[in-house]
Amino acid sequence: MTAVFFLFLLHLSVGLLSALVFVPHRAGDRFFKLCVATAAVMTTAGLGLLWRRYGDDAPQALFPSYGALLGATLGFLVLVIVLNRAWHFSWTRALDPLLGLTVAAGALATGAAARGRLELASDASSALLLGAATAAMILGHYYLVVIDLPITALRRLTLLLVVALALRTVVVTLALFTARGAGLQEAGLVLRGLFSPDGVFVWMRLLFGVAGPLSLVYFIWKTVDIRSTQSATGILYVQLFLVLAGELLAKHLRVFSGLPL
Predict the structure, then answer these.
(1) Which domain holds residue 168?
(2) 10 Å Cβ neighbour count for 233?
(3) End-to-end Cα spacing for the chain
(4) What's the domain count of the chain?
């Protein structure tokens, strides 16, 4: 389970920082410091779990470029910490370049963990979805704190969430039909009334991580459109829970079954 939680925490951290690119500085330094500090804690936890379990030698079948993964993740963590301090000390001119550099380092770490193009597409879309859902939910609360915060900020993250969910759905569909067909076969066994642990997890992953979030997108968009930020934040809570559950199941299927869902 170490690899499962490492991938989950890494993708969540990278995605959260990627979503900050779409948020104006008017959201306030407390919002940005909270998001960046959260990413730092999660990345530290994930890296600590990985090192405690594997040290400097992980199985090649799990992480073919393990040394590059460790180096890229550590570099990403250092930049996240520097970015947090930049917000704390109001290094205004350095904020956007540092954020871009940090996101680029996170993308390198994400790529180093992938085994092939389909897994890379799955990891990238997973990080984007996790980040968009988390950032949108957190930002919704700041409309109670930053009175003059424009609705455009939440609208941007909502649009990012819609795009991320669409991309994630496409990648999951491709994975179901192209990754040796194993996921589709296991899910088919469950439909025929036969027990299959992987099949059960596939269906749970599709229901929690794809169908559930898709069913809420319209309601989130409409509440943001009418500037009902409290209602939007409430729905985003449910959306975030479904996305987190779905992506955690996806990581489990990837590590233990080789399915990049």
Answers:
(1) 2-257
(2) 22
(3) 17
(4) 1
